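Lecture 7 notes: from sequence to structure.

We start with a single chain of 153 residues. Read the sequence below before looking at the structure.
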Amino acid sequence: MKIEKRKELARESFPEKMRKVGQLRYLSAKFKRQRERMTSKSGCDRAYEADRNPLIISAIEGKAVLRFYYNGKARTVEPQTYGLSTAGREVLRAFERNAGRLGIARLFDVEKIVGAEKTGEKFDQALPTHNPQDSAMREIFATLPLVKDVSPS
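Now the structure, written as tokens:
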């Protein structure tokens, strides 16, 4: 049985394997949060404080480009805002390079992000459409400052 399963896994593509890893990480984090909420006295969102992603926070603070897998696809993004969504999930608002959408940032569920790493590249500033008070988030952990208008008056 083990040998058959190993052969089956060996035939799968890398993105499929990464998708499965992402599912396992998602379930692990989900059950961890449920346990923390059940054991906390107040049951409030304080359980999320320990789970904040330091890589995402440092990438936003340092304007560093991130690369990761999301829904089985490799993504290269410029992170804009990281926080807790109105639905209570950790989310990242980021501009995806090479996505064909000019100046539009996308919302990524942090639990679905797999293999995140800094690329070593930097970006200059937030998108012109960036809003530090993102309405999709009820709590913001890290965000870029507003873009300063440098046009001559």
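The mean pLDDT is 83. Keep this in mind for problem set 3.
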